[in-house]
Each structure stands twice: as C-alpha cells, then as structure tokens.
Amino acid sequence: MRILLVDDEENIREALREYLTAIDHHQVVTAANGEQALDQFAADKFDCAFLDLKMPGMSGVELLTKLKEIDQSLPVVVMTGYPSLDAAINTMRQGASDFLIKPFNLNQVKITLERVVREQRLLKDNLHLSERLKHQAAMEKLNRELSRRIREQNIIYRISEALEKLQTSEEIYQGMADLVCRHLDAEKAAVLLLDRSSNQLLVIAVHGYESLAVGQTVGELGQGICGKVASEGECMLGPAGGDAYLSELLPVEKRSLALPIKIREEIFGVMLVADKRGVAGFQGEDIFIARFLLDKAALSIENIALYESMVANMRSTLGALVSAMEAKDPYTRQHSRRVTNFSVLTAQIMGLGLEQIESLRFAAYLHDIGKIGIKDYVLLKDSELSPEEFEHIKRHPVIGESIIKDMDLTEAERSIIRHHHERWDGRGYPDGIAGQDIPLLARIVAVADAFDAMTSDRPYR
Ligand SMILES: [Fe+2]
C-alpha cells in the first residue's frame, strides 16, 4: 500500500514512517506541509493519506478537501494533538475516514490502518461490482438489440427471396399483400392503386378481405387514412376499431397501418395492413419491415414495367424493319401481315393455347426479317432466279435468326424464323429436318407462307 504522510513535525513524520514501513512493508512518502503534499499527490498514486490537522500554511482540513476533490475514494486519516468535537465532526464531514489523537500509540495506528484497508477494499469491490452490473446490463441491452436486428435481417432476407420469385406485376401486388400479413403477423391487407385520372383508390390485391374484388374503388385521395397517406406520402397508424371513412369496405377490428407505395418518390398507391395478432399492436419494427417490403416490391414493379416497355419497343422496331423491307418489294407487300393472319387463324382452329397464338402473332410477322440481308437485285428481280441467286435467297432464315438472336424471343418464336422453309419430307432449308422434328409453330407458318405464295405472285415461286 502507498501512503502519503503529511506532518510538519519531523520526528512524528519519521517515527510514523518507520513504523508503517515496518508493519506491512507499506511504502510511505512524506510531506512537511499541504503544498508539498499536493505536489506529491499530483506526481504519484496513493492508496491512503495521513494528515496532521494543524500545520503552518495550508491546514489539514483544507488539504483534506483538496485531496478529496482529486480522488473521492481516497481514505484519509486525520491526526491532531488538540482534539475538539467540532474539529472531529468537521473533518468527518469533509470525508475523513478516521481520526487519530496525538500522542497516539502505534497499536492504535495499526488498527486504524487495518480498518482503512478493509474499507478501501470494500469500496473497490463495490465499485467493481457496480461496474460489472452496468456492463452486464449494457451487454443484455446489446444482446436484445442484436437479436432484434438478426430477426429483422432474417425477415428482410425472406421477403427479398420471395419477391425475386415473382414474375409479373400482378404476382408482385398479391405477394405484397400476402408477405406483409405473414411478416407483420396481421390478418388483413389491401394493396390500393391511386388512379390519377379520377383520384380514386382501387383495389389491386387483397389478403383476408375476402369480399373485396380487384378493381373495386375503396376510397378517394385525401379521404380517410388511405386517402391521406396517398396525398401526404407519410405512413399512418389508424385509430383502434378502424377508420370511419373506410370501415364499410375495409373493416378493421383492432388497428390499421397505412403506408404509401412510391416509385422514384412518386406515390402510386397505398398499402393497408390491419389487425395484428396479439396485444402489442404495430411497432416501429413492423413499419421498418413493411417499408422495406414496399420499396423492394416497387423496384421490382418498376423493373417489370421498364422491361415490358423495352420488349414492346424491341418488337415494334422489328415490325418496322419488316414493313420497311416489304415496302421495297411490290410482290411481298402485306405478305407478312397475311402470313400472320393465316397462321393465327390456323392455330385458333387447331385449338392452340393463348401463349402459342401470341407467339405466332408476333413472330410470324417477322418470319422473313432475314431478307434484310439479301441483295436488292435478287430480292426485287422479276425474272427467274439463277441457282446461285436462289442459294443466296435461301440464306434468309439463318440471317433472320442471327438478327433476333440477342433479343428476348422464346425458343418457339426463334424456331418460326429459322425453320419456316423446312418441308415435311425433309427437302426444305436451312436444316433439312422433317415431319414432327420441325417445331409446330414453324410448320404452321410454313403452310401459311406456302399458301400465300400460291395465292400471290412471286418471282422465285
Ligand atoms: Fe421466307
């Protein structure tokens, strides 16, 4: 233990120093007055101090106060030769741990010191314990926060994964209603679209609201909780028992939560979630998860819209190419349109599915797109073609396929362009495949193409 011993009488200082050093190998640093003591205290660390109360210059009480200001937990033993009750009370009030009356016997010093050491240890243990408790409480709080974050991340991951599997806008709207109910543990949800022309909110998907139909109007911009969210763009918690304005169409038993659906900061709808199971009601965490779901879904919807417009754009460009090519040739004018019509009619009579008919409607029009790569004098020649010229024109299905190969056409659509000159007997081109090996839609277009060739007049017929 390091002890600071302050006394103006040298013999007392030395005697006490020797004794303290002897009893328990304590390290004792001495000072003759308050100033010296403060210098020592600033330069070194001490576990305890013994102060004489009556010293020239700074008094013991003054020094005691200053030391306590620096280190509140330092045990200080005050020594005096002139005891008075007032002085004793005063020093104790200033934080002295004990009071020694001079001349003191050394045994008394020993007992005081032991008591101070015990108190010091208790104090330290206490401090240590309360630090540990504080630390433990902080750890528990961190743990709770961490498990909340993990739970949230887990939900976010599952939402992302679920949304990625959805292909069309309709599937995504329905997915939004289903997923928000599942992850917020709510019973009902409705996805409403804001129709900007009428300022009305239309149902686009529901979960739990069985009587509502898609396309039904359920509110108006600015009216009720959903209308307010649609006009203000901020999420809102509805009153218990539901929103009076919407109660008939969108009944809520407990509480509702309405959030804006935005694409690039533009509000295009509202998501209403209602009746969370349990007693807690919607929390900040629920809003966070619902917002994440809406942002992610909005991004998917935007991407689908972008993709659909790109596809529409690409299709109309391809169609324009065919029209431009046909415009050069009086014999083939409207040929692609007629082949398309014959093919679609044939497919309808054969009872093919909608998807196949749509493929035909699109790709039959493009079947001769490869003729863009055929030299004009061959294409426009009105006398009979030479064998070389005929070989040249026979390349158009392959050229056509290479034009569309990087575009997002289905395999059936691609096959129409490549195989519309194959023949059932295998004597067609470019691959010479026969019978059922020729893809069905390509066969239909081949027949329609042949029929149009027979009923119109072409040089190389
Ligand atoms: Fe052709």
Walkthrough of the structure:
The protein is an alpha/beta fold. The protein has three domains: 2-124, Response regulator (Rossmann fold); 169-306, Beta-Lactamase, CATH 3.30.450; 329-455, Hypothetical protein af1432, CATH 1.10.3210. 53% of the residues lie in helices and 15% in strands. The protein has 15 helices and eleven strands. The protein has helices spanning 10-24, 34-43, 60-70, 85-93, 106-164, 169-184, 224-232, 284-328, 335-350, 354-363, 376-379, 387-393, 396-404, 411-419, 440-455; strands at residues 2-6, 27-31, 48-52, 76-80, 98-101, 186-195, 200-207, 217-220, 236-237, 256-263, 266-276. The strands form two sheets. The chain has a six-stranded antiparallel beta sheet with strand order 8-7-6-11-10-9, sandwiched between helices. Strands 2-1-3-4-5 form a five-stranded parallel beta sheet, with helices on both faces. Strand 4 (76-80), helix 4 (85-93) and strand 5 form a beta-alpha-beta unit. Helix 14 (411-419) packs parallel to helix 15 (440-455). The protein starts with a strand and ends in a 6-residue tail after the last helix. The structure holds fe (ii) ion (FE2). The site of fe (ii) ion has 6 residues, from loops. Residues 367-368, 396, 420-421, 449 line the site of fe (ii) ion.
